[in-house]
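Field log, afternoon session.

UNIT: design team B
ACTIVITY: writing a sequence onto a fixed backbone
BACKBONE:
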């Protein structure tokens, strides 16, 4: 693929010349080529050692060690989270935050490709750090744990992780090169039903079946799904359904994800979901407890100016973005959405898998450690690093 990254739009009165921008971009591209073996090795090691959210000790230490060896000083266990980190470079100018995610999925490992997000962000951040003083800008590499439902970025933001940033950027693997991901708001919900145990054969009339309550609640939500907006989603799993068939279950539990286009729509949908679930308890004579888990995720606001710069740089590498409407957008939720409501942000997608391969599948997990996945690490790092140069060079 070509490395002829465009210099960017015409500068304003505070900008660097096109030649200076082109030289900086050429340098960050060369730096990423020099560290390509290290970046791919980091990606493979994280893939080989999948860790759930807030438990990413191996990935945290590995990424921090590489940052330290590059001459930066990684702040470990940052912003009140054991597996978060940060590293900064540059003394003046616009500060750009590069987000690294590295948590895995239970049972599926890196089926969302966070090993690629971590290593491409690492490469972009280190390359930018090496030219920060000459480029007149600053960069902050942020290790953000527990994207898969834990909300690491939200907790970090509450502790000041986003303060002073002019932009926040990252790239996410997918089956296509896309400018955006259709990121919707989400709130996680845990539900517990409590009934009364009894012998299922000898005295069923004395029991109150908490599993039946959960099943009826699930069916009620299934009926509700017919009458919600096309951009809303509700999906759940049973996490407890009793112990033995001959004991009337006195306890059952479920975990739910409730999604809507934005937090306002989510606020309208949440009580409808609770009503459907509560009806299961009412019908069976059981009690129901529920907990909305902190934090909710916001929808994603994609900054058009930063996105245009990224797309120019990615296109120069052969990563031309497709129209998300051709085969439908990639829909999901991310705590990067919360970041985008505080700092101008982008969340583009980079192809690592055959078209039609869904994230969060075994097939996608294999692709995240494939040759295509490795190429995405390098191309993603280059496109992000070149975009940082653009932001430094024309901060207005």
């Amino acid at each position: 693929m070509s490395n002829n990254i465009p210099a960017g739009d015409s500068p304003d009165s505070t900008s660097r010349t096109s030649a200076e921008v082109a030289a900086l971009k050429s340098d960050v591209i060369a730096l990423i080529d020099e560290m390509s073996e290290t970046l791919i090795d980091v990606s493979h090691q994280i893939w080989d050692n999948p860790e759930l959210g807030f438990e990413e000790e191996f990935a945290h230490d590995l990424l921090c060690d590489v940052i330290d060896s590059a001459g930066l000083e990684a702040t470990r266990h940052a912003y009140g989270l054991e597996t978060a980190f940060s590293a900064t470079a540059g003394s003046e100018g616009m500060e750009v935050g590069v987000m690294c995610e590295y948590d895995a999925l239970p049972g599926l490992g890196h089926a969302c490709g966070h090993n690629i997000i971590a290593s491409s962000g690492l490469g972009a951040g280190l390359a930018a750090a090496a030219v920060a003083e000459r480029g007149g800008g600053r960069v902050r590499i942020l290790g953000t744990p527990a994207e898969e439902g834990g909300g690491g970025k939200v907790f970090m933001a509450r502790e000041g992780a986003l303060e002073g940033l002019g932009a926040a950027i990252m790239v996410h693997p997918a089956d296509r090169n896309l400018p955006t991901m259709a990121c919707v708001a989400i709130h996680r919900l845990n539900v517990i039903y409590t009934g009364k145990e009894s012998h299922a054969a000898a005295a069923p009339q004395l029991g109150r079946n908490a599993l039946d309550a959960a099943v009826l609640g699930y069916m009620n939500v299934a009926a509700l799904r017919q009458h919600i907006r096309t951009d809303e989603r509700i999906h759940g799993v049973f996490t407890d359904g009793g112990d033995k068939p001959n004991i009337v279950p006195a306890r059952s539990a479920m975990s739910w994800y409730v999604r809507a286009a934005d937090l306002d729509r989510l606020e309208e949908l949440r009580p409808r979901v609770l009503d459907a679930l509560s009806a299961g308890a009412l019908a069976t004579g059981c009690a129901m407890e529920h907990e909305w888990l902190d934090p909710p995720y916001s929808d994603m606001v994609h900054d058009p100016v930063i996105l245009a710069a990224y797309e120019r740089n990615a296109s120069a590498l052969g990563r031309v973005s497709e129209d998300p409407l051709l085969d439908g957008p990639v829909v999901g939720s991310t705590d990067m959405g919360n970041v985008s409501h505080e700092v101008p942000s982008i969340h583009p997608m980079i192809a690592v898998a055959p078209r039609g391969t869904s994230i969060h599948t075994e097939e996608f997990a294999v692709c995240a450690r494939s040759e295509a996945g490795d190429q995405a690490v390098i191309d993603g790092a280059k496109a992000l690093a070149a975009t940082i140069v653009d932001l430094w060079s024309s901060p207005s």
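LOG NOTE: Residues 371-393 form the longest helix (23 residues).
NEXT ACTIVITY: expression trials, pending approval
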